[in-house]
């Protein structure tokens, strides 16, 4: 789960990125959430870092696993040009439709990271961003990515580690219930710290890594994800309505004094597959 997943302002239409719930999503809401997250400087930094690490060249083949709204696929498509092939794999029919609506000419196919619909050694470059946290068998997904990568090919994984989520100020007991809920709802909440291990276990060699922290501005205390999170947690009975109100009020008052803090760290690792022979 992305933080946003549990932060749906409307509990009747929960935003879930789980592949098993792909057919009953509120796609407009998910797309809005993905756009908001993509606008964060930390996420933009990691997207640019991945592109530089993969360096997809004209005529090459590139894959984006869990391509969402297609933002990164558009860039891959440009880089490989008409003589290359860039493909997104996305299990959500709504997000597939949304990505094609946004950018005609991109190629997005239905599929699951656990069983990629491609032959062995099909791609020069593979990326997978903030997807593994939604998968309870991330090792299987990364070995699938390694399988479809050609010998000598490049891969980059990006993910959040939910142990790095920090919010201040808040009643510690209320906050721990909110975080416990977030962690329980996430298939693989500590994904960020495992990226190197997943790549090594799949026989790939890490060549570089980085991290970026989403630091929410003071304006995010009163109208950002935390407000939505409190509302959702109250609606689901994780916290009471008065607790949610006190939580939000405390954050708003802190922001008015310039004292609010929210941060979350995401990690990116680039690796290669050994050349043949
Ligand atoms: C948080 S979004 C990230 C989307 C995109 N990678 C980005 O950076 O904006 C997670 C994406 O993973 C997709 N997803 C979830 N489970 C998946 C699976 N088992 N295989 C492939 N994609 C999956 C979701 O449908 C969603 O598009």
Automatic annotation (TrEMBL):
**BP terms from Gene Ontology:** methylation
**Where, if anywhere, are coiled coils annotated?**
none
Pfam families (UniProt xref): Methyltransf_11 (PF08241)
Residue span(s) of domain Methyltransferase type: 63-156
The GO molecular function terms of this record are: methyltransferase activity
Residue span of region Disordered: 1-21
Question: Domain of life here?
Answer: Bacteria
Transmembrane segment boundaries: none
Q: Which InterPro entries match?
A: Methyltransf_11, Methyltransf_Superfamily, SAM-dependent_MTases_sf
Q: Which UniProt keywords apply?
A: Methyltransferase, Transferase
Q: Protein name, please?
A: Class I SAM-dependent methyltransferase
């Amino acid at each position: 789960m992305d933080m946003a997943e549990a932060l749906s302002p409307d509990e009747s239409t929960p935003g879930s990125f789980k592949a098993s719930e792909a057919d009953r999503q509120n796609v407009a809401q998910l797309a809005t959430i993905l756009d908001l997250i993509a606008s964060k400087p930390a996420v933009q930094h990691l997207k640019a870092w991945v592109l530089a690490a993969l360096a997809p060249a004209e005529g090459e083949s590139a894959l984006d696993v869990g391509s969402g709204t297609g933002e990164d696929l558009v860039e891959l498509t440009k880089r490989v040009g008409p003589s290359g092939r860039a493909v997104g794999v996305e299990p959500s029919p709504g997000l597939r439709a949304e990505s094609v609506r946004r950018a005609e000419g991109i190629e997005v196919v239905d599929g699951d990271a656990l069983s990629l619909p491609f032959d062995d050694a099909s791609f020069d470059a593979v990326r997978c961003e903030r997807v593994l946290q939604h998968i309870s068998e991330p090792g299987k997904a990364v070995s699938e990515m390694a399988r479809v990568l050609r010998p000598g090919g490049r891969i980059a994984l990006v993910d959040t580690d939910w142990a790095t989520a920090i919010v201040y100020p808040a009643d510690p007991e209320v906050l721990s219930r909110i975080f416990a809920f977030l962690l329980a709802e996430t298939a693989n909440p500590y994904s960020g710290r495992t990226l190197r291990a997943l790549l090594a276990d799949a026989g790939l060699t890490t060549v570089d890594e980085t991290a970026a922290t989403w630091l929410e501005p003071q304006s995010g205390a009163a109208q950002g994800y935390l407000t939505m999170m409190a509302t959702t947690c109250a609606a689901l009975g994780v916290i009471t309505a008065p607790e949610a109100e006190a939580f939000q009020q405390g954050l708003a008052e802190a922001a008015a004094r310039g004292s609010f803090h929210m941060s979350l760290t995401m990690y990116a690792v680039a690796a290669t597959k050994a050349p043949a022979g």
